[in-house]
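Batch manifest line 277
LIGAND: calcium ion
JOB: complex structure
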Amino acid sequence: AKRAGGNSYALFEARMDVDVHAQVSLQAELRHAAERGELALFYQPKVDGRGGQIHSVEALLRWYHPQRGLLGPAQFIPLAERFGFITQIGQWVIDEACRQMREWSERGVHIRVAINLSAQQLRDVDLVGRLDRAMRRYGIDPSRLLCEITESVAMEDIEATQRVFEGLARIGVFLSIDDFGTGYSSLSYLRQLPAKQLKIDRGFVQDLETSKDARAIVDAVVQLAHALSLKVVAEGVETEGQRAVLISLGCDELQGYLFARPMPAPDLLRWMLDDAP
Ligand code: C2E
Ligand code: CA
Ligand code: CA
Ligand code: CA
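JOB STATUS: finished
ARTIFACT:
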């Protein structure tokens, strides 16, 4: 038995080894993904709760890996964070979102784009400068750019968050608190952040039709947000039933597979021209 145990331990260790090797090679490849043209932004519409129009989209990062195929952010963003180059990737996201907005503008499509910021980007002292320079380079009006920061990241280092939010608000960039309800916000603190938007986490939306508690929470969050002059977006809307409840509770914008999945820029343009009401 001892022997077998020893063997299975060795096997386990060997597997871990493979995994570590895979991670190391993946992060090495990721360092060059942007310059090799393998990164892409997919866009998911935020649909107006009242009229159903599209005023904005969220940019979600993808990696076309030459061997592994299309990878989602969960498969590689943690690596970039751990190995300390999320800021470089974030810079690519900022540039690409601005470039894309410019291209859409030239075709007469004026929509807002939201990008996601990680904890490390929030600690980057040059973040405001980076955004400012990218918007100038492409001639983008700052009010058309939105930055989404998750509630838990925003509350990690409250003073840093406040500094960054104020810097971004000063240059005219809108801020959104993402995945709201999953962290532990001090409500009085929320009041002090110059945010414009609050995104209700998908977890609450999922349970809306079956749980009275989820419904009560969403109801309270919408009221709180509106009292603080914040717009409310619900994410992960997948059913007609969820949509109906969210609209009755006063959600301003809805986002989810019910309307559209995240898609490449050319598909989004086609989707807007074909399906927009
Ligand atoms: P998130 O910001 O909460 O984005 C929403 C996620 O939910 C996206 O996953 C989106 O594809 C997915 N989603 C949208 N509608 C539905 C729906 O109706 N049902 C379900 N089940 N899922 C839905 P994705 O694209 O895999 O992104 C995952 C996370 O990765 C994002 O969560 C965001 O935190 C992060 N992320 C994405 N792009 C970037 C980026 O450029 N930079 C950074 N730092 N993080 C990013
Ligand atoms: Ca987001
Ligand atoms: Ca979210
Ligand atoms: Ca989420």
